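Write out the bound-state structure for adenosine-5'-triphosphate.
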Amino acid sequence: MYKVGITGGIGSGKTTACRVFEVLGIPVFYADTVAKEIMTQDVLLIEGVKTAFGDESYFEDGKLNNKHIAGIVFNNEKALAQLNALVHPAVFRAFDAWESTIPATVPYTLKEAAILFESGSYKLCDTTILVTAPYEIKIKRLMQRDGVTEEQVKARMDKQLSDEEKSRLADHFILNDEQQSIIEQVLALHQQFLKLATAFKSDNF
Ligand code: ATP
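---
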């Protein structure tokens, strides 16, 4: 099935854009949410985490010991890369399982991931969308949504690739600047993806 990847910096509005696609009947795989869920569900991943970071990575009731893991990977690039090398394949497995449940009548699916480009998972998508918003608007949204300070938002932003770097890799764009309609932009992209998905289907028949 034709796969569209969608990403954007924190507060850009990628989840908001995905909700519009969902209204149009397009199923969305929220990779970041799934990544959190599978930490306590995917047996291979759990075993890998315990081997890499110790049995204390999980409490006796099976819950993840976030504090323990964060303590190891915080400011330790090698350990973070090791964790990502365990989590990313597990997310791919979850995506494949999810996609296999999607009816053939669905024209295409959307995969939302904050680190679509950073993780390399964009290579498994047929096309990609980058959602952008002006810096000041993103700061305002996140301070409101998460009740955090401007400095805390900036620290989170600094950990991500810049929009300039991401836009070099993206195929389509949504500008969520609260001036241009996000609904109209999604509708226009949806029309393009329907055509692309039809061509993809006939090429792969
Ligand atoms: P994150 O990566 O941090 O989860 P995101 O890119 O998924 O962020 P959203 O959660 O969609 O961004 O949006 C961030 C906040 O901004 C939300 O509270 C959302 O309701 C609000 N928001 C997004 N787009 C708009 C808009 N066009 N007008 C008003 N508010 C908006």
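---
The mean pLDDT is 95.
Residues 8, 10-16, 114, 141, 145, 176, 178, 182 surround adenosine-5'-triphosphate (CB under 6 Å).
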